[in-house]
Structures are given as C-alpha cells and as structure tokens.
Write a structure and sequence with these properties.
This protein is of the alpha+beta class. It contains eight helices and 19 strands. The strands form three sheets. Strands 1, 2, 3, 4, 5, 6, 7, 8, 11, 12, 14 and 17 form a twelve-stranded mixed beta sheet that branches. A five-stranded mixed beta sheet has the order 9-19-18-15-16, with no helix packed on it. The radius of gyration is 18 Å and the shape is globular.
C-alpha cells in the first residue's frame, strides 16, 4: 500500500494512493482513526476493506502534506554513509550519530522548501525515512523490521551555518518548511528488499547524490535497536536514516539551494519527492 496525508479543498485527510488517484480512506474510517498516525497505531486494520466506499480524487486536485504531520518524534541519523562521513572529515564511530527534527519543520511533496531570511546556506540531504508501526523499547536487531510500518522519501534540508554554530546540529535542522517528507509512505510488503535500492538526489535535474541503501554504515535494524534503547519508539515516529556524500556544503564552491531551484529525492520503486525552493516571506 501507498499511504499519504493530503488536503482536499482545505480539509486534511489520509488515504491510499493508487495510480494517479487518491482514495479517501480517512473519511471512511474517521470514527476509528483520526489521522494516519492513529491508523498506523491500529495496524492499518480495515484500510483495505474501506477502499470500496472511499471517495476518489485525482492527485492533481489535492495538496500533499508531510506523510506523518504529527509524529511523536523525528529521529535523524547523521553521517550514515561512508561517502558523507569522509567528505566531512569525521572519524569513524561505534554508534549512530543522532539528532532530532521537530514536526513543524516539515513540508510536503510539491510544497516549497523555504530558505530562511537569516541565511543563504540552504543544503539538500536526500534520505530514506522509516515510519515506525509498532511501539517498542529495547528492540533487538532480529525483531526490528517487525516494527516498521513503511518507508518514504525525505529531504533533510539543512541551514549549514546555523548547524555549525556549536557541536549540536539541532538549530540548523529545524527551520520551518525545510524537511520535505513524501509524497507517500509505502508498506514493506510492496516495497520489498531495500538493500539494492538506489537513493538519488537531483538539483535542477542534475544528480548531486547517489547511493544504494546497502551502503549505510548503520543499517535500519541497527538504527531501530539503538534509538529504542534511549527512547520508546511509538507508532508514527520517523527515523530519517542518513544521507550519502555529495552535499552542497562540501563542494568547492559550495552548492546551496536558492529560490527558483527544483530539488528531487528519489528512492527506487518508492517514488519521487519534488520541491521548489523559495525565500521565506518577510
């Protein structure tokens, strides 16, 4: 299944994406699930059966919102591809590098990523997002994949000068409308094996990042194991699993995103997340 959160005529709902259409399962199941996060917590029970009574809207007539607009937490994994670790000059580590992103820093597919008025150092980071489906603490590697509800594309947009103000990444990762999440999440049974899938970021049609998921330093089971040790993972939580080398900050000269640009993050078989870049309104 492909599941998305959208706005239709100003009304927020969630449902299934099939071909070029959206099936408003959220309206059909509103008495059971208030939103996609609640549906995930309910193990998506009843979603397939509700298709027959779901209103259909062409994708061209709706607005995509972040797949999970209201996660309890967004946990991001830094420096998780060897190409990116090397380009930053960081040393090898035994454990994942972790920082957090706030829910209100996110934006949806086709919506603008905003360059804030205080900086021009807006960078791209194409990533695979992991949506947690089942709550857990101290989850073992062997059980980790059973806690996954699905996967999505993510652009972990970064304001690099604010990221480098201290050793903490948080300020540069939480400006409003910089974390693009979408267009939808795909359930593991439909996406299949991850390892060979290619992750690609394009800026104005030019490939700027490319790697296979198997090139992660810490794979997804290890990320879930580690994160569930220091926090209880909840349904609808998002783990943003790291970006490959090629980020704009490490190029000479730096390649910053600017108004008028189009940035795309594609995960093979999963989909393409596309966003224009605009300046924040004054």
């Amino acid at each position: 299944m492909k599941l998305a959160t959208v706005a239709i005529d100003g009304r927020t709902t969630w449902g299934l994406v099939e071909d070029d259409n959206f099936l408003d399962v959220g309206a059909a199941l509103v008495s059971r699930y208030a939103d996609l996060r609640a549906a995930i917590a309910g193990a998506l029970a009843g979603v397939a059966d509700a298709k027959s009574r779901a209103a259909v809207t062409p994708l061209a007539k709706l607005a995509f919102l972040p797949v999970i607009p209201n996660p309890d937490k967004i946990v991001c994994v830094g420096l998780n591809y060897e190409t990116h670790r090397k380009e930053t000059g960081r040393t090898e580590v035994e454990h994942p590098t972790i920082f957090s992103r706030y829910a209100n820093s996110q934006t949806g597919h086709l919506k603008p990523i905003l360059r804030p008025r205080v900086s021009t150092d807006l960078d791209f980071e194409g990533e695979l997002a992991v949506v947690i489906g089942k709550a857990g603490r101290y989850i073992s590697r062997s059980e980790a994949m059973g806690h996954v509800a699905g996967y999505a594309c993510y652009n972990d947009g970064s304001i690099r000068d604010f990221q480098r103000h201290t050793h903490q990444f948080t300020p540069g990762k939480n400006f409003p409308d910089t974390g693009a999440f979408g267009p939808w999440m795909m359930t593991p049974d439909e996406l299949g094996e991850l390892a060979e899938l290619k992750l690609t970021t394009r800026l104005n049609g030019e490939v700027v990042q490319e790697a296979q998921i198997k090139h992660m330093i810490f794979d997804i089971p290890r990320q879930i194991e580690y994160c569930s040790t220091f926090t209880r993972l909840e349904p609808g939580d998002v783990i943003v699993s790291g970006t490959p080398g090629g980020v704009g900050a490490r190029r000479n000269p730096p390649l910053w995103m600017k108004p008028g640009d189009i940035v795309e993050v594609e995960v093979e078989r999963l989909g393409v997340l596309r966003n224009p870049v605009e300046d924040e309104a004054r």
